[in-house]
Amino acid sequence: xxxxRARRPLAEAVARLPADQRDVLLLVALAGxxxxxxxxxxxxxxxTVGSRLSRARKKLRxxxxxxxxxxxxxxxxx
Length: 78
Known about the structure:
Elements: H1 3-16, H2 19-29, H3 35-42, H4 46-63
């Protein structure tokens, strides 16, 4: 699946995430926060950030059929 074809399914999958997981994902992926910054921004323990992000990534991979849209069909990063 190309990144372009994954856009809509990815947006829908992000929208379906629980708010706590979505917040962590967006702060890391879009705002570029590190785990410590996310923990401070959301007033949660550092370890909670990693747990929520891991759960969010698993759900997104599943929603995209187990593929990473940042890799082309040959497995090379774009």
